[in-house]
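Exercise 7. Given the encoded structure of a 100-residue chain, write a plausible sequence.
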């Protein structure tokens, strides 16, 4: 591909469009996190032991899931799979909001 003024102009236009989409995505993510926090608080307050609430056709529940170890691949490389599995089992669980 030959680099021309048109190629550079097209690149800059696409880059500006990408940045605009990213700003929109960031705004949507902030709104979604706020809404998720409200839903989690609602389920915690009203969900009881089941940690589950139903509203219309939707069920919101909190589920404990295994924690993640982000450096697991490097640990496997250095210390072996058994050590990584031991740490994975000891990792604290995380709570996930699930809406069906």
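Solution.
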């Amino acid at each position: 591909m030959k680099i021309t003024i048109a190629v550079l102009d097209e690149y800059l236009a696409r880059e500006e469009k990408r940045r605009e989409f990213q700003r929109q995505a960031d705004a949507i993510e902030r709104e979604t996190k706020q809404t998720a926090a409200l839903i989690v608080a609602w389920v915690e307050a009203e969900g009881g032991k089941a940690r589950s609430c139903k509203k219309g056709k939707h069920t919101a529940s909190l589920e404990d899931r295994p924690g993640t170890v982000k450096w697991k691949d490097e640990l496997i490389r250095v210390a072996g799979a058994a050590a990584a599995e031991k740490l994975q089992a000891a990792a604290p669980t995380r709570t996930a909001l699930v809406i069906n």
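Remark. The chain has a mean pLDDT of 89. Students should compare their own answers with the one above.
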